[in-house]
Structures are given as C-alpha cells and as structure tokens.
Amino acid sequence: MNINKDFEVYAAQVVSYINGSQRRANTIKADILQSLEEKSAQTGETDPVKLMGDVQEVAMEFSENLDQETLNYQFEYRSKTTIKGIPLIHINKRYGGTAKGIIAIGTIAIGVISLGGISIGLLSFGGISLGLIMAFGGLAAGGILSMGGLAISLLYAFGGAAISFSVSYGGFALSNNVAVGGYASGKELAIGAVTRGRVCIFNQSGVGEYLFNINEYSREELIRSVQMVKPDISNFLLNLIRSVSF
Q1: 160 and 246 share a domain?
Q2: Is 200 found in the same domain as 245?
Q3: pLDDT (tens digit, 0 to 9) for every residue of the chain, 246 residues total?
C-alpha cells in the first residue's frame, strides 16, 4: 500500500512529541497512518491536519492515553485479612514498589511465599530469589532446595551452575559432598563427564582417589565397585548412579 508522504511526515511529527519506547512509537505511528488512510478514503481529504487535528494536540491525546495505561498497570492491593498485622496478600505493581505479606507479589517481594523480580521468603520465586526453605529463579539461594540458572543451597541445588554443601546437580556442579554434572566437583562423590572428588564416576576424565570410567563397567558392576570403596553409600546415591546417563 502506498502511503501519502504528507501522512508519513505528520505521523512522524506526532510521534516525536511522545515519550516512550521505539516499539510503542512504531505502534502509534502505524495507528495514525491507518486512521489517516481510512478518513481520507471516506472524505477525499488529503490534509492530515484537517483529518486528525493539530500535531501537538494529537500527540497530547496519545500521551494522556499512555499515562492512563501506565497508571492502570501500576496498582497495589492489600488484603483486609491480616496475621499479626501482616497482610495475608500484598500485591505491589508500582515501579520500585515493595510487597510485604504472607503472600507477597511485586518488583521486590518479601513474604512467607514471595514472587518478584527480587524475592525473599520461606518459599521464594523470582529473578533473584532468596528462600529460607526453597528458592526458584535466575539466581536462587535456598536453605533446603534451590533451582535456577545459578543455584546455591545448603542441601540440594539444581541449575545451570549448582553449588551446595550436600547434593549439586547441574551443568557445572560443585559440592562439599555429592556433585553431578557436565563438570562435577564433589568432595566425596562426583558423577559426570569431567569429575573431581574422592570417588569419581565419569566418561571423559576424573581426578580423585577412586576412579571409575563408566565405559569400562556395566551399571551393576559399577554399583558393586563403588560399594566396595564407599560401603556407607546411601540407597539414594546408588539409585542416582543407576539413573544418571552421560
């Protein structure tokens, strides 16, 4: 479709007075051009000012609509139900706002169950997530369990990079006890392609006291061999060895 050049200039002038992202500017420009084309087809008029009005006035109308959309998006809700003065639910979607409640949702969220860009709670979900019990997020640090791009935990960590004192499982896994991953470093047991630990189960390389190349054992032979050097190994870890594939 051929667009009237005067329409293009007019739309560009309107957009120049409006603050917003480039994506929003392109959307507004497309709306203006469509409106001009439709009105021109109906009336035969080709002067964009006569069709829609003064450039600055039109820009002001669009800006007011955008401001209202922003206000509609930014809202805050606190439930009337409270526990020891703390809202049962607090949702704060205002820019930079902090939500504090038993259930907290916001840019920054602090609660028993929290969900936010930065989230702190017993159960925490967010971009940056800190959970006393469990944490899930891009960067997750949890007391018992954490899952994320970077997961850090006292007990169980699962992620792209996983670090824990007990069991770590990830592309890069580091643990004071058991690590499973592409690269795995576990003080007691390491399972993966490249490993480092007291007992290493690997298919590429291992550095440690007891080394088991999985290509040289059947799975049950491997289990028996590991039990010989680590007789106190738990059934959980034995099942983990059975289930892991390289």
Answers
A1: yes
A2: yes
A3: 456 788 888 888 888 877 766 777 788 888 888 888 888 888 888 888 888 888 888 888 877 666 555 544 567 788 889 898 899 999 988 777 899 999 999 989 999 999 999 999 999 999 999 999 999 999 999 999 999 999 999 999 999 999 999 999 999 999 999 999 999 999 999 999 999 999 999 999 999 999 999 888 888 888 999 999 988 888 888 888 888 766
Beta bridge partners of 184: 173, 195
Domain total of the chain: 3
Number of CB atoms found within 10 A of residue 107's CB: 18
CA-nearest of 114, 78, 77, 71 to 95 is 71
End residue of a domain, out of 73, 90, 119: 73
Position 244 in a domain: yes
Q: Where are the beta strands (DSSP E) in 1-144?
A: 76-78, 82-83, 86-87, 89-92, 98-142
